[in-house]
Design goal:
Blueprint: H1 2-10, H2 14-19, E1 21-29, E2 37-38, H3 40-53, E3 54-67, E4 70-81, E5 93-105, E6 111-118, H4 120-126
Parallel strand pairs: 1-6
Antiparallel strand pairs: 1-2, 3-4, 4-5, 5-6
Length: 130
């Protein structure tokens, strides 16, 4: 399911991403000003902004740990910062950063909890604001 989710993200397909989530999903991008959101519609704004701010994205999983109904994924995102990702002026610059996803899955396989940590220090180094 995460590969499907990442595939929709690479294609900037908001509807596809939201279809991978349960109706009661807890969506938590750690450090986001909104805090955790609940339900796909509450997560919509995050993905719409993300797809406006980043382009040409590719995700490569470095390692995954699995358990009963959960997974931890350590990945690298590569692409371009075309908008204002994470509040920083992108100016079309290349960008690469690590992501850590902690996911819980419902019995049907959809994502019922998604926690994401990203390497903001690395992002800030690559997108200086001067």
């Amino acid at each position: 399911m995460l590969d499907e989710h990442f595939g929709y993200e690479v294609r900037d397909d908001v509807e596809g991403v939201l279809a991978t989530l349960t109706e009661d999903v807890e969506h938590d991008i750690v450090g986001s000003p909104t805090g955790p959101t609940h339900g796909p519609e509450a997560a919509r704004g995050f993905y719409e902004n993300l797809f406006a701010d980043l382009s040409e994205g590719q995700v490569k999983s470095l390692r995954r740990l699995y358990g009963e109904n959960f997974m931890v994924d350590d990945s690298v995102w590569r692409g371009r910062a075309t908008g204002r990702p994470f509040g920083l002026e992108g100016r079309g610059r290349p960008l690469e950063f690590r992501l850590l996803h902690v996911l819980e899955f419902a019995d049907g396989g959809k994502i019922k909890r998604e926690n994401v940590w990203l390497d903001l220090a690395s992002i800030m180094q690559q997108l200086p604001q001067n």
